[in-house]
Write a sequence for this structure.
């Protein structure tokens, strides 16, 4: 069905799709492939004009033995695939509660002349919780990205006064996909770009900027993390299938260097869809729906930006081929949750292949984050513009708030104050207590 010959495309190496002739019709069901030829139709008769003999003759033309063999073959395939389906012994159906509308405040980016038709692609609180970074990006990309986009920095005081004037603004020549806050440096802004670059800027003083060419495809996740050895590392994951780990030497962003890389996807074919990182292990969901956890390496023996083999802890079974979100618990790093494009929340222990609990939700979940203080609570953004507080241990919705009529693009919890920031497709920033 597809040709393996590569096509030369600016920015990405795609596989050229073979165009079938008009007479070729191809169907594929559960691994069974049939190809038929279209033919012209002559002597068309309605049902009322068909004689009984014609109907009997059509029934006699069916090869019942071949049909029976085909159905038996399909049954064997289903019985084989069923062994890989996840068990749902711990499944529950979440309740539904009436959503309240007590949102604290809202700031719109539509008044910014640079915003235009863009969307809020990511937002992040800094380590002190007194500044909110908001990034923009385009909705769709049909080719390599060179769109001019911005990172707006709002102070908490500005947000509380519903002031849409940003205290700082940075511009980059690519769409921004994700943001990260440094755990100790409140002035450091780090962004993952669509063109594969990592943007690092120190907004304190002379605005030092560094562009790190760590990926060849879009950066899907970026974060700073302080390990148990008190070393702060910069971790990125990209659509090129690589997870990169680097450090900033002597707090100088000009000396931010990549130490080593993990290859967990298939370069230029299967990239990383979702990613999260802890002190001992990291989790990856690939574009083909495969979910795995790997051991974190100290990287002390890795030299010259070496690609090292990631040690697999486990591979996990899900309910869908599309993984929307994957997040580790803040209080217990052995637990992580996954949301998929099938209205479910899956709770996993990293040492078990099947989900510990499967929660069937009434609405599609677009964003999710863990509570910072309770390992049983997650906050989910729902497709109808509501933010819900869910007890994943009981499978119940504790509270729900109506934020907007559109979809969420990003949510982030403030680590110093009991507030949560929400970015929407329409370009609005909502700040709400939780």
């Amino acid at each position: 069905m597809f040709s393996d010959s590569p096509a030369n495309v600016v920015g990405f190496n795609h596989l050229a799709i073979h165009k079938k002739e008009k007479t070729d019709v191809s169907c594929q069901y559960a691994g069974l492939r049939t190809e038929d030829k279209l033919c012209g139709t002559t002597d068309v008769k309605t049902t009322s004009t068909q004689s009984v003999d014609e109907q009997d003759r059509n029934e006699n033309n069916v090869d019942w033995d071949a049909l029976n063999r085909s159905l038996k073959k399909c049954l064997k395939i289903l019985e084989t695939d069923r062994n890989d389906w996840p068990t749902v012994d711990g499944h529950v159906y979440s309740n539904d509660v009436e959503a309240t509308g007590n949102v604290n405040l809202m700031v719109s980016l539509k008044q910014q002349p640079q915003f235009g038709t863009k969307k809020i692609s990511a937002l992040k609180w800094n380590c002190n919780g007194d500044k909110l970074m908001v990034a923009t990006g385009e909705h769709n990309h049909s080719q390599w990205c060179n769109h001019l986009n911005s990172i707006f920095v709002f102070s908490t005081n500005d947000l509380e006064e519903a002031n849409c004037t940003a205290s700082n603004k940075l511009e980059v020549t690519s769409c921004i996909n994700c943001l990260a806050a440094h755990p100790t440096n409140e002035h450091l802004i780090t962004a993952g770009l669509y063109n594969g670059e990592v943007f690092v800027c120190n907004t304190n003083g002379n605005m030092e900027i560094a562009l790190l060419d760590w990926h060849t495809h879009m950066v899907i996740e970026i974060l700073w993390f302080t390990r148990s050895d008190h070393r702060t590392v910069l971790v990125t994951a990209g659509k090129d299938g690589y997870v990169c780990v680097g450090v900033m030497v002597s707090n100088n962003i000009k000396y931010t260097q990549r130490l080593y890389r993990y290859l967990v996807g298939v370069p230029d074919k299967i990239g990383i869809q979702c990613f999260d990182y802890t002190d001992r292990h990291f989790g990856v969901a690939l574009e083909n729906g495969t979910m795995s956890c790997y051991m974190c390496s100290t990287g002390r023996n890795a030299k010259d930006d070496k690609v090292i083999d990631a040690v697999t802890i486990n591979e996990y079974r899900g309910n869908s081929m599309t993984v929307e979100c994957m997040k580790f618990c803040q209080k217990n790093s052995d637990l992580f949750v996954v949301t998929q494009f099938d209205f479910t929340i899956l709770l996993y222990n990293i040492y078990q292949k099947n989900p510990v609990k499967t929660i069937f939700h009434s609405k599609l979940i677009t964003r999710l984050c863990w509570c910072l203080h309770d390992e049983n609570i997650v906050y989910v953004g729902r497709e109808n513009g509501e933010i819900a507080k869910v007890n994943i241990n009981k499978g119940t919705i504790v509270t729900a708030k109506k934020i907007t009529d559109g979809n969420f693009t990003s949510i982030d919890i403030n680590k110093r104050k009991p507030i949560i920031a929400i970015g929407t497709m329409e370009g609005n920033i909502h700040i709400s207590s939780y």
